[in-house]
Every structure is written in structure tokens, then in C-alpha cells.
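hey so u asked for the seq, here:
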Amino acid sequence: MAYELTWYIPDKVLLLEVSGDYTLKDAEDVDELMHDKLNHSQKQLLVLINAMKMDRPYNFNQIRLSQTYMDHRQLKSIYVASGDRLVKLAMMVIFNLSRARLLTYDSLDNAMSILQSHLNAIR
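ran it, C-alpha cells below
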């Protein structure tokens, strides 16, 4: 399995950790899991994608078509952490038409810091 979906902050922020080769099957499974979490949420959620250990995907368009959760009304923002410029480009291609706001960062620490400051600002 090239991914793991957990709560970073329960009922506020989902953490999707991606490592190695992220396949179309992985993307379809993640889409189903994300829909489940978003459908059961009473408020808008944020997603933090840790792609620091993700291999460069070669099938951007197929993955993009499978990620329908990005248009869910309960998804507010997507934070992506990756030190690889091509992985960040892939994420921008995948989520460029998303209803949710997309933010990309060069490190997980930076993404978590900005995410926390955004959470503090909306309290």
C-alpha cells in the first residue's frame, strides 16, 4: 500500500501520507475513503497530503479523473508537502480544477506550520 489516511486533527484535518508508487487503484481507494470521511463530517475539513516520499507519478490525468473528492462541498483546503518539483507539479495538475483551495509547500514542517496558523486564525 502506497498510502495511509488518518486524522491529523480529529474532525478537522485529514492526513494522507503517500509513499512510493501511487497507483490508479490507490487513488480510487483514497477517493472512496475521502468521500466517506467528508460525507460524515458536520463541518468543512482540511486535507494535508504528505508526498515527501512519493515517487513521481506518470499517470497524472488518470489519477486526476479518479479524485472526485476534491469537489466535495465539505472539503475546504488541500495542503501538499513535497520537496520534489515534479511531484508538486503533478499535484497541481491533479487538483487544479478542485473546488477546494490548493496550497503546496517544500516541506512537511512548513505545511503543518501554515496549516496550524490557518486553523488558529479561524478559531
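The mean pLDDT is 93. The helical segments are 24-39, 60-66, 85-95, 108-121.
lmk if thats what u needed
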